[in-house]
Specification:
- Helices cover 33% and strands 19% of the residues.
- By secondary structure, the chain is an alpha/beta fold.
- The chain has one domain: Class I glutamine amidotransferase (GATase) domain (Rossmann fold), CATH 3.40.50.
- The strands form two sheets. Strands 3-2-4-5-1-8-9 form a seven-stranded mixed β-sheet, sandwiched between helices. The chain has a two-stranded parallel sheet with strand order 6-7.
- The longest helix is centred in the first third of the chain and has 13 residues.
């Protein structure tokens, strides 16, 4: 990993202060920032189309150049996928099922591409499942996500940071699973950071801060 990795990891919503932090990580105005939008974590979530589109539109409204990239159609075209990702400033990975997401990242080869690009200085932005996979493992989230949605179980994370984000720590629908995952990961020796649904972690090299 690079000496100065740049990541913005958040739980659910993203506000103006957090958008501004993303702009600063990239070093450009929003209108000049090109984002690869990977929404595949929602592939296995019923009735997800509306909120997936709503989130994409929220980034577009702020002026970002958003390019949705469906990894399902790039699984046998790794060179073309790498070319598509290389032209961006930010790789954004959305929420949904963490286990399915990790599988398709591996199956498409996007995981190694993302590691290489972040090593080269590209900004990584992850929401919920997309934030979880940035860490070293996705173990112990079974109470929040259905493991069986993944055709193959891949437990290692992208290792972009050694911190494992625990999203939705204050969300009534996920709070029990989030606390259980946090306890189990800490017991296994991992460094965790529980985030409420309005919080984001900004990592800029050795500097880290939470913005709400």
């Amino acid at each position: 990993m690079p000496e100065q990795p740049k990541l913005l990891l958040y739980s659910l919503s993203i506000n103006e202060r957090q958008f501004t932090a993303l702009d600063k990580l990239v070093g450009k105005e929003a209108s000049a920032i090109r984002i690869a939008f990977i929404e595949n974590a929602a592939d296995v979530i019923p009735d997800s189309e509306d909120w997936v589109l709503s989130i994409r539109q929220s980034f577009k409204r702020r002026g970002y150049q958003v390019d949705p990239i469906d990894l399902r159609i790039w699984q046998r075209r790794p060179q073309q996928l790498m070319q598509r990702l290389t032209g961006k400033d930010v790789i954004w990975i959305g929420g949904g099922n963490t286990y399915y997401l990790r599988w398709i990242l591996k199956h498409s080869g996007a995981d190694e591409m993302i590691r290489r690009l972040v090593r080269g200085g590209m900004v990584f932005c992850g929401w919920s499942a997309g934030a979880i996979v940035a860490g070293p493992t996705i173990e112990y989230f079974e109470a929040m996500d259905n493991v069986e949605d993944a055709p193959e179980l891949v437990l290692d994370g992208l290792n972009l940071t050694q911190i494992i984000i625990i999203p939705h720590i204050d969300n009534a629908d996920f709070i029990q699973g989030a606390h259980l995952a946090n306890m189990q990961l800490q017991a296994a020796g991992y460094s965790t950071l529980p985030l409420g649904d309005t919080e984001a972690l900004v990592i800029d090299g050795g500097n880290q801060r939470i913005i709400d």
